Amino acid sequence: MDQLNPSDGGTIRRRIIELLAVEPMGARELSQSLHQTEKEIYDHLEHIGRSLKAEGRRLIIDPPVCLHCGFVFEDRRRPHPPGHCPRCRKTRIRRPRYAIGSSR
Ligand SMILES: [Zn+2]
What we know:
By secondary structure, this protein is an alpha+beta fold. It contains 3 helices and 5 strands. It is 36% helix and 17% strand.
């Protein structure tokens, strides 16, 4: 549907899916590989998370971890990294990584 129109981000999203199907990557790596800003990558990832469901796949988010106290951000549904830790309030967070997996 949208993969033939480069102007709407469909092509970029296809490439993100192809890259993540090979190996997990973080937003910074994706941003460098695809020449998109990290903000654009997060927007694409959010869209990918929704569209993969229709294909029986899902976006796996390797959860961010607080580097100060070890708190794991288990239940995050959105791809964006958290700004600070809810437990210790520090901002040194290991950024999430993303992969593509089966929904089963
Ligand atoms: Zn913490």
